[in-house]
Design brief:
Helices cover 30% and strands 21% of the residues. The protein has 5 helices and 5 strands; from the N terminus they run αβαααββββα. A hairpin with a 5-residue loop joins strand 3 (128-133) and strand 4. Helix 3 (74-82) packs antiparallel against helix 4. The longest helix is centred in the middle third of the chain and has 20 residues, at 87-106. The protein is extended. Residues 15-20 have low confidence and may be disordered.
């Protein structure tokens, strides 16, 4: 009753839940194995995917911080988050430091400062509803919100920023799109 069949350890000391092996789709991107490169090809930069799930913070507040650091070098992003007094900034800074250490340890990145943030985004976690009691027998429903934070680090300097698009450029693109469409069921 206490021992598993053919085992010397009691069942109570063996952790059998699947929570230890739980990986999402984002973390599994670290396991992609690319084919070998040809001798003349430039070296493929390392890509590091990291995330933190179920953060007790709003995804909408976290979005502003995620967009703030997207496209920056990792040192510049850590400096920006150091002087931001929001709760989410502290969480994102911890995630970036974990990803930076993981890059050096697991992904053969030589210099930990030679990374930039290619993608930085948030996602909605579990929302729980709770009752908040008011006076005179009334009540309200409050939501306890959680969010996920995802980051992708790429080896090398950050790409130059895209020039801002003017309204004239957008209008030209729209007219070109209208002219290039085809009408179905016609001659």
């Amino acid at each position: 009753r206490w021992l598993a069949s053919g085992s010397l350890f009691p069942l109570s000391c063996i952790h059998t839940s699947t929570s230890l092996q739980k990986f999402g789709k984002w973390e599994k991107k670290n396991w992609i194995v690319y084919p070998p490169q040809l001798p003349g090809e430039p070296r493929r930069p390392a890509e590091i995917y990291h995330c933190r799930r179920e953060i007790k913070y709003s995804k909408d507040k976290m979005w502003y911080l995620a967009k703030l650091i997207k496209g920056m070098s990792i040192d510049q992003a850590l400096a920006q988050l150091e002087f931001n007094d929001k709760k989410g900034a502290k969480v994102i800074k911890e995630v970036l430091l974990e990803a930076q250490e993981m890059a050096v340890r697991n992904h053969n990145v030589e210099f930990k400062s030679n990374l930039h943030i290619a993608e930085s985004m948030t996602g909605r976690g579990r929302y729980m509803k709770r009752i908040r009691y008011h006076g005179k027998g009334m009540f309200g429903i409050m939501k306890i919100v959680r969010c996920h934070y995802f980051v992708k680090l790429v080896e090398g300097p950050p790409p130059p920023p895209e020039p801002p698009r003017t309204g004239f450029d957008q209008a030209k693109e729209y007219v070109q799109q209208l002219r290039s469409r085809t009408l179905v069921n016609t001659l």
